[in-house]
Amino acid sequence: MQNNDGGFYAECTVKGSVYYPDSLIVNNHTQTVLSRHNANSDLIWIKIFDDISVSDFGTTFVKDKDGSVIYTGMFNNQIQIGSFTLTENNTGSEAYVCKISPEGNVLWAKALGNGEVTSNINVTTDKSSNVVVAYVLPPKNILIKFDAQGNKL
Questions:
Q1: How far apart are alpha carbons 113 and 131 in whole angstroms?
Q2: What is the pLDDT of residues 85-125, one digit of tens each?
């Protein structure tokens, strides 16, 4: 995703030993990596989303009007996102949404709390920087809205 300063955000899923600009990622399970780069492709920051016991993967991300990144993904058991530890509710897989500042600080992270979510997770923001997450929880479609501070509306 292009940034206003000519830089960009990149997201990937890695497993095993992977050299990512200025970082060596070594793991035995799948991890999601989100990074911000400047216009010269130099790494500004990197976030590794680590499901503590199994695997995780990201699904989508957008920027809000202030330049923060809203990121969604899925995990099993427990995941560490910045200083936030999210735990699934014993239903298998769990979806999450988090907000990361342009400086790379994790502002908030929330487990969506419905379990057995498919990978069809979408996210957008409105003019007030509220976050809207939509996903499929068979047989229903779910829509959840958070304010800019991560409070469920």
A1: 16
A2: 988 776 667 888 999 999 999 999 998 876 666 557 889 99
